[in-house]
From TrEMBL:
PANTHER family: BLL5683 PROTEIN (PTHR42850:SF2), METALLOPHOSPHOESTERASE (PTHR42850). This is Metallophosphoesterase family protein. Belongs to the metallophosphoesterase superfamily. YfcE family. Pfam families: Metallophos_2.
Length: 251
């Protein structure tokens, strides 16, 4: 069975729709949503409803820092654009949608897999995995062979051998990577709704749980339409324009 790993949707309806269609066309039978369903994008209610429906069908979903901020309020450390988007997003969600976000777990374990938004060593702290040091700290914090996480908006792959040797890899889209069973693996699929590597195409990954093959995917979508939704959603015009440009430029 193929598992679609989708993270950092950020209320981007166009990107999420394209990724769902692509994943299903490539054999995905199950979905894991790795947090930050909302924030930045112009369609939070639609995205939350889609994720809630997937969860009802058996998908895994965990809480991201933007999802948490919707429930508890923006953190003081959040940038102005993120804070404004959080406050606007909260006004767009009904009680049931807010309750769904509030009930999301910080992490889930299933079939030797850990699903978490930021890291395994402090899921609620939302510390970034910016390199090998944080990745190894995360891998040492779990007994699971596979850790799937988001938060970082660029695709990356880390591994830890039985002898303690660490490695990291920047994957190429569409290339199957065998996740060897004698290692631990940390998979960051990149952002579906707001990639930040200079390429606006949506990111996600497919993991074949039978063969152990992982592939990172890039999915072009109507980024102009997504940017237009942000511009006209009701956010402050200056903030909305900055967020729209980030989508268009993949940053």
């Amino acid at each position: 069975m193929k598992l679609a790993l989708i993270s950092d949707l950020h209320a981007n309806r166009e990107a999420f729709s394209a990724v769902l269609e692509h994943a299903r066309a490539h054999g995905a039978g199950r979905f894991a949503l790795l947090g930050d369903l909302v924030g930045y994008g112009g369609d939070p209610a639609w995205v939350v409803d889609q994720v809630r429906e997937l969860v009802q069908q058996g998908a895994i979903a965990v809480m991201g820092n933007h999802d948490s901020a919707i429930v508890t309020g923006p953190l003081p450390t959040m940038r102005e654009d993120a804070r404004d988007a959080i406050l606007w997003t909260r006004s767009q969600l009904d009680a049931a949608q807010l309750a769904f976000l509030a009930a999301l777990p910080m992490h889930r374990e299933a079939d030797d897999c850990l699903f978490v938004h930021a890291n395994a060593f402090d899921p609620q702290g939302f510390e970034y995995i910016q390199g090998r040091l944080e990745a190894m700290r995360s891998l040492h914090a779990t007994q699971c062979r596979y850790t799937f996480c988001g938060h970082m908006h660029e695709p990356k792959l880390y591994h830890l051998s039985g002898t303690g040797k660490a490695g990291e890899f920047v994957p190429s889209p569409g290339v199957e990577i065998p996740l060897l069973p004698n290692r631990q693996w940390l998979v960051i699929p990149g952002s579906c709704g707001q990639p930040r590597d200079g390429n606006p195409a949506a990111c996600y990954a497919l993991f074949d749980m039978t063969t152990g093959l992982l592939s990172y995917q890039r999915v072009p979508y109507d980024v102009d339409a997504a940017a237009a939704r942000v511009r006209h959603c009701g956010l402050n015009e200056t903030v909305a324009e900055r967020l729209a440009q980030r989508l268009l430029q993949g940053e």
